[in-house]
Amino acid sequence: MVLFALFLVTPAVAQAPVFSDEGTLSSDTGHVLVQWQSDEPVSLSIESKADPAGEKTLYAGKAQAYFLSGLANGEYTLRLKGESGLSATPLSLTVAHQSLSQALWFTLIGVIITLAIIVTILKGARDD
Amino acid sequence: MTETSVLLEPSTGYLLLALFSALWIGLGFYWGRRNKSFEDHALAGRNIGLALGSATAAATWITSNTTMLAPQFALELGIWGMLAYSMAAFGLILFAPLAKRIRQLMPHGYTSGDFFRLRYGRLAWGIFLVFTLFYSLTWLVTMAMAGGILLEALAGIDYVWGMTVVLAVCVIYTMRGGLAAVIGTDFIQSLIIIVGIVVVGFAVLQNVTVSEIHANLTANKPALVDVLFPAAIMALFNNLLFGLGEVFHNNVWWSRAFAFREGVGSKAFLIGGLVWFPIPVAAGFIALASGALGVAVPSPDMVGPLVIANVLGEFGAIAIFIIVFCSLASSIDSLLAATSDLITEDIYRRLISPAATPERLKSVAQIVTLVLGFGTWAVCVPRIGTLASVLFFAGPLVGAMIWPIVTGLYWRRATTTGAVGGMLLGGGIGLVSYFEIGWFVASTIGTAVSMAWVLACAALSRTQFDWNLLKEA
Predict the structure, then answer these.
(1) How many helices (H) does chain B have, and how many strands (E)?
(2) Which of A15, B263, B292, B307 places its Cα 20 to 30 Å from the Cα of B413?
(3) Cβ of B312 under 8 Å from any chain A Cβ?
(4) CA–CA separation, B286 vs B297, rounded Å?
(5) CA pair distance B330, B23, nearest whole angstrom
(6) Is the Cβ–Cβ distance between B158 and B414 less than 8 Å?
(7) Is A34 left (phi over 0), alpha (psi -120 to 50) or beta?
(8) What is the pLDDT of residue A5?
(9) What is the residue extent of each domain of chain B?
(10) What is the pLDDT of residue B47?
(11) What is the pLDDT of chain B when averaged over all its residues?
């Protein structure tokens, strides 16, 4: 009976927050959806060795996901900390954008096709 | 920072849903009262004027994708992404001269399927039907699903209820009023959407300046303002070609080219395209402001509503609810009408019952609309999350149809071999590139392959197509 009463009054122990993805995330577009599970409000921060500003807080609140975009090439570390002070294992994020020369070639192809369509339409039917 | 929660009281959401549902259905019945034949129902008597024509072109192109996906493009791909989405306006602008040519070559035409059948024969027609039905039905399903998801996210309305109401309202007024009701409601919906987006854009600028937005992006999301952002650069022309393919082939646009009064089509599509062009820029700008406004985004497709609610509070939440409902309705009704006409004309009339009377065809079109509505509802109920991404597979398929259509309308020497090979090779290789490289090159590659094949076949051809064959009564 005493044990049962103790069980009732003992506060639930907060679980450490965890990232849904384990290990390393990678992106070739500079954006990634970061998701996690947590019983309490959390703060999400990001750090990059290349950034002299050091660790930046991205989000603080009860949400379970954060959409990160516009990142430059580099290695990043994401940290998640619960309100109670417990932290998730840090998550690594590698951003390596698509090849610029490939992008410019595809853009050139797009320009050529578009101009060809416009010229064909503007010239119209010459053999009516 | 913003939490993930509904933006509007459910009771307000249900009230808005009921009011606008009653309005669209009432107008559908009113505008459909004079429809007697299939031509009245499917093509509004071929007598649509410039104001309604321009409005329907712009409104139909403003889908829930424009109000939701354009901000997502900006958030993922930055300034280039915002412009990439706007490039789809060229679909309407370049369709303007095509609409004039279509009306001139096919004065009695009903569908884009009629063109493929008469110009290239049954094999090309069959491939076109497979491609276009895949695209149209997937677009329809994703729109209806988006309706349920967005109403749930905005106002806490149960997904199945929201999706069912949006779909049922569109089915009822499209069945009753046909294209006249679709175009009439589009006119009102386009005004609401444009005014709403402009008001929201100015409201955002009252809360944060352009220089603050730029400073925030430069510090925290540098790739979004990088002029050499690879994925964004590739998306620019890929999206333009995707938009061109969507408009050039789909019966949503061809039915309007046939329905507009003589001489109206080219002006209406040009005005519609110019009106549409700045809308994704305004919607995308809202997303770029999210960082400077301190709005955290848990899901990229919700960035627009989150920023608007953050800036305008409950008024903003009501505004975005109405904008979303209007943009969903203006696209779902057009797709229902155009797809049911395509099935009625190309499958029922051409393959099953060539002697059907105009009254019978009208009834069949109404039944097909109802069946499409039920079918879409049945697919949407399980809420298959990955289904929305299927729509992007259509990029290379529609891109591969651009050159068969353009050369088929203007060149006597364009051949069936060119059209069939262009669609199959362009669609196939484009799909491979979708998986091997990414969605942002699939339409470009599909269109490039199709173009090379179609032009090579035309160059080697000695065919001289007789344009009179397109004038089938």
Answers:
(1) 20, 0
(2) B263
(3) no
(4) 13
(5) 13
(6) no
(7) beta
(8) 56
(9) 10-390
(10) 82
(11) 89
CB-based contact A67 B299, cutoff 8 Å: yes
- The fold adopted by the segment(s) B10-390 is Sodium/glucose cotransporter (1.20.1730)
Contact B451 A125 (CB under 8 A): no
DSSP state of A10: S
Burial class (CB in 10 A: 0-12, 13-18, 19+), B413: middle
Q: Tell me the ipTM for this assembly.
A: 0.86
* B162-201 residues touching A, CB cutoff 8 A: none
User: pLDDT tens for residues B353-399?
Assistant: 999 998 999 999 999 999 999 999 999 998 776 555 667 788 999 99
Contact residues, chain A, for B403 at CB < 8 Å: 117
Mark yes or no for CB contact B233/A103 under 8 Å: yes
Q: Decide which of B34 and B259 is more confident.
A: B259
Nearest to A96 by CA among B231, B227, B438: B231
To test the contact with chain A by mutation, choose from B2, B68, B73, B76 the residue with the greatest count of A C-beta atoms within 10 A, namely: B76
Residues of B in contact with A71 (CB under 8 A): 221-223
pLDDT digits (tens, 9 = 90+) for A4-62: 555 555 555 668 899 998 878 999 999 999 999 999 999 999 998 777 778 889 989 88
Structural contact between residues B420 and B120, judged by C-beta atoms closer than 8 angstroms: yes
CB B209 within 8 A of CB B362: no
